[in-house]
Amino acid sequence: MFKRFATQPIANLVRGFISLLVIIGLWQLLVILLKVPAFILPSPFAVWQQIISSSGLLWHHGQVTLLEMVLGLVLGLLLGLMFALQMLLFAPVRRWLLPLLLASQAIPVFAIAPLLMLWLGYGMASKVVMTAIIIFFPVTTCCFDGLRQTPQGYLALAHTMGASRWQQLWHIRLPAALPALASGIRIAVVIAPIGAVSGEWVGSSQGLGYLMLQANARMQVDQMFAALFLLALFSVLLYFITDKLLNHFIPWAKSV
Amino acid sequence: MSQSVVPAINIAQLRLAFNDDELIFDNFNCMLEAGQFTCLLGRSGCGKSTLVKLLADLIEPQFWQGQVATSDGLPLQGRVAYMAQQDLLLPWLNVLDNACLMLRFGQFSAKQRQRLITQAKQLLIEVGLADNLMSMPSTLSGGMRQRVALVRTLLQEHPVVLMDEPFSALDAVSRHQLQTLAARLLRGKTVLFISHDPQEVLRLADKLYLLNNASQLQALPIPHSQVPRIIDAELARYQQQILDSMENCHV
Q1: Residues 6+ apart with CB under 8 A from A125
Q2: Among B79, B88, B93, which would you mutate to test the A interface (most chain A Cβ atoms within 10 Å of its Cβ)?
Q3: pTM (2 decimals)?
Q4: B57, A160: Cβ pair inside 8 Å?
């Protein structure tokens, strides 16, 4: 068993590395075979050179986007959890909130981005809110489903022990819902960059989205790819860190 | 804790339905003697579990009338421990915390808490889980998990224990061990034990009834030996009689 656990992260890394190599190889092959101009599709080597040469610039904008993503995640998680709890505890609230929740997803985030810029300014707040809006739905629905699907036997047992409604919520429903919430958080982490970057596209003076727009206007496609690479790296790292933390703190997720 | 006198429970003229059309119990009468192991045998769907859940206040039928009275006149609510077919161990708590689950819900002084935790450890050791006090439920076998559930039930120190096919999901050896443990540890409590296994109830019962689909109880004979009974030729004869009765009863 120890051997399996010890070798699994290494095997994952090796798999990821091989996949990356294959993609880069195909990309290079495409560039060579089709003789695509560098301003349409730069070679992987050119992108790598760009990453090295403008690492300071990339990091400067990257940390802004990363902060927007993390803050948006925290806000979205808190909002999602709060909504899910309210929908569970107060049936009339559920009837009113559910259409609102669905509407928040029916309207494309790009459509409300200009409004958010108008209300919250061109700074970080509007991007954080956009990220929160995007992740709010999966978190709310996963958490609400988890809270609703508490095994009835657990609740019956708690009832025979004289547990109050709040005690049942705190000691039974919430821990039982954590595996479902964890699934929502995993989805949220992956889609968080969409909110942050689309916010930056609509209006900003920093961030990877802003850098991509600037690079696009100047036909610096290699810089666009470098920014994309950093964004993908952030997403992957955030996902794996979150996954590790969730597995550590919710080990029973695999057994329920 | 409800360390009150162990009461008898008299269920009289019970009528119960979940919808307008179908009565699950119609003029049902049953006496659970104080401090005795009353076993209720019946085939699936005859309403055994419904009765347990009604007594445990776990269901709200659309309609029910009748009388559920205790011999001491005190309400049953708050004096009932419940053990289900599933062990219902919370996967996020270790064995000791699961056994002491009721500490999370009730008002207990520090002294009471300490006493109950000590008692839980003693009971867990007694049922053979000395090495698993801090283990998580997912690492235990079905038999071990149900032992924890039994300790959790005992630790509530309630005079009435309702058991709804608690050992039916276990393998034969674990079931036999758990039956022996239950007979020893629950002695002196008013127990209603539901099962569909004639051999199991013959090992444990002070009183044995067969419940048919017409919600009628039929008292069944049991051996006069001490519980937990060993499975011998006499018990096998009784078992055959019960199986015949079950086949012949209105189902």
Answers
A1: none
A2: B88
A3: 0.82
A4: yes
Shared domain for A122 and A161, answered yes or no, is yes
Alpha helices in chain B (DSSP H): 48-55, 95-99, 110-126, 142-155, 172-185, 198-204, 233-248
Residue of B145, B138, B205, B203 lying closest to B174 (CA atoms): B145
Peptide bond connecting B228 to the previous residue in cis, omega within 30 degrees of 0: yes
On whether ipTM exceeds 0.90, the answer is no
* Residues of the domain holding A121: 46-253
Residue by residue, what is the 3-state secondary structure of B194-240? EECCHHHHHHHCCEEEEECCCCCEEECCCCCCCCCCCCCHHHHHHHH
Q: Give the β-pairing of B9-17 and B63-70.
A: antiparallel
Least confident segment among A165-179, A238-252, B56-70: B56-70
CB A154 within 8 A of CB A172: yes
Residue among A160, A161, A255 whose CB faces B91 most closely: A255
Side-by-side strand order, sheet with B9-17: B23-32, B9-17, B63-70
Partner residue facing B80 (CB), from A160, A176, A251: A160
Question: Would you say residue A253 has pLDDT above 90?
Answer: no
If asked whether residues A82 and A206 sit together in one domain, one would say: yes
Number of domains in chain A: 2
Same domain, A166 and A96: yes
